[in-house]
Amino acid sequence: MTRVSTSSDVPDTGDYAYDWALIDVETSGLIARRDRVLSVAVVTVGPDGEQTAEFSTLLNPGCDPGPVHVHGLTAERLRGAPTFDQVAGRIGAMLQDRVLVAHNAQFDYEFLAYEFARARMWLPVSQRLCTLALNRQVDPPTDDMKLGTLAAHYGVPQVHAHDALDDTRVLAGILRASLREAARLDLPLPLVTCPPRQESQFTPQPPKTPCAYRNPGRLAPGGPLAQGMKIAITGETATSRAELVGRAVAVGLNMMTTVSRHTSVLVTNEPASESAKARRAAAEGVPVIDEHTFLRLLSDVRTGTSHEATAVAVAVAPVREPGTTEAPAPEPTATTASAASAPAVPKAPALLTPSTASVPAPRRPEEAGTVSPDGAPDKPLAGRRVLVLGGVHADAAAARTRVVALGGSAAVNLSASVTDVVLLTGGENDHRIRRITALELPMHGEHWLTAPTAADPDGPTARPQAPNVLPRGGVIDLPVPHGTPAPEWHVTGSWAPQADCEIDVVAFILDEDEQVTFDEDFIFYGAPESPAGTVRLLTGGPAEQTIAVDLSSLPAATRMVVVAAAIDGAATFGTIGAIQIAAAPGSSAAPLARATLDAATTERTMLLAEFYRRGPVWRLRAVGQGYDHGLDVLARGYGVDIAD
């Protein structure tokens, strides 16, 4: 048995002492519910950093092996290999009572969960640790977070990339080094709880075909139905519900399972019904017709306007070259919408409309010490990352806004990239002060932000690929790939670890009316993936969640994807503090843009970011708008009633 380095260089006490099961899988594709595992490797490591066992095998998936140019596993090589169910027991025994560790751990965990479910077995994993998420917390000075890049940074030899066993051995070295850095910075480990997964949860759901037509509005009294109308049905019907839905979809209607202010008509044989849909229709003034009338109207449905036609009309508008930004404008004030200014139910949140909003542009960080032509320092905090501690929320938010105005990047957690610390009132009592002092990071009073000193020439320097710094409301065009596959964009929200509440990141896939096309366009912890897999929720730890968006595969009906955060509990964003967002073209890629968002004092939901189309170009906006109401109200504003 070949062993990785057995040096006991991993912290062996407290939060860092675990039995680990490091795992890597090679797969036939990227979608766990559809694709199969082709090879698997497991290396177990004890709390002292010593390797205790390893196992690897090729697997016969019973299907096409997929991208051979990536993993090198041809059908011939896999022929004669065991099937997963033949080795599931051995793999399960190695995972039992250990923390599963992988690079992009949710990917490996989901594939294993599906394979164990197909084998009619439970995946015996109760916790997992993602080394990608751990290194996002550590934030080492690397160009990206790919396995090979981190291996080179930490001095871990890599022999055969995309070989499951070699990747797992490399992962063991990266884990050791990452844990050392986490201990040096006194960072909590981003452990994710993994509840038992039932087989029924792994039954693939057939994607719903989006309606091809734009919603023309409500049904007029005595008028005809038109393609694109949103139709809901409630109560008992003489015709089977499946047949009604099938006939309606066939003629171009958009069948919904909930009622919103954008519903065109509710079909029911019981107009006095007390169902949730009937009550909502009455509250919204949605027209109501019976089943007989609906069937009669289905025989003559008027032609609607296709989403493609609307997209063409938008695309002919003049656009800038990709990679440019909107003209700068005054930045919005730090205080966001309060309960008084938040939209009343059930109206949609007052978003910054892409076609009309004038917003500040992002800024590319320059090397520290850049001097303007007149000799005065230009953006004296450029290339520096500043952590603000202490102060009431309004003062801390103002300080972070000042950091960005001076060219710096505002941090929300201590990491290896932090170059300076600003202490507001009470900041000296922060639990991180002891560690900051040990790291000899420069600490400044709040007056330092009025005239900060130039960077120490011997101190940290700007990173080769420092992200654009987006102020609140800032917009950036996403680069258009030329000759390469379009990337899957990841927007990661992170915050200071919380003991008394949880934060949920969610997404809404919206049409031209800033409404969901159907209910499955709401992505949240209970439904973490859209039916077509184009938008997904990924959990890297208790203080980090990601929305992954495949922009190139979104249907023409989609004009915007909104990423939001909601607090589960009585806390507010005022007590939680700032949320950082980072946008990257892939899970391991360097961020293209980063923003630090502060809500005011009482908000419980916050719009973090939005992707939106502008002609042929997709843009990303850092929003940072908060509301006092909960996630249920926010969802209803976008046409989803999560109470149903």
List the helices and strands and how they pair.
Elements: E1 20-27, E2 37-45, E3 51-58, H1 68-71, H2 75-78, H3 84-95, E4 99-102, H4 105-118, E5 127-130, H5 131-138, H6 147-154, H7 164-185, E6 191-193, E7 230-233, H8 241-250, E8 254-256, E9 265-267, H9 276-284, E10 288-289, H10 291-297, H11 307-315, E11 385-389, H12 393-405, E12 409-411, E13 420-423, H13 433-438, E14 443-445, E15 468-469, E16 475-477, E17 489-494, E18 502-510, E19 522-523, E20 535-541, E21 544-549, E22 560-568, H14 573-576, E23 579-584, E24 593-597, E25 605-614, E26 617-627, H15 631-637
Parallel strand pairs: 1-4, 4-5, 7-8, 7-9, 9-10, 11-12, 11-13, 13-14, 15-24
Antiparallel strand pairs: 1-2, 2-3, 5-6, 16-26, 17-21, 17-23, 18-19, 18-22, 20-21, 22-25, 23-24, 25-26
- Uncertain runs are 1-8, 198-206, 316-361, 363-376
CATH homologous superfamily identity of the largest domain: Ribonuclease H-like superfamily/Ribonuclease H
- Which architecture of the largest domain per CATH? 2-Layer Sandwich
Strands of the widest sheet, in order across it, are 3-2-1-4-5-6
Reading off the top of the CATH hierarchy, the class of the largest domain is best stated as Alpha Beta
Helical residues, percent? 10-25%
Number of strands: 26
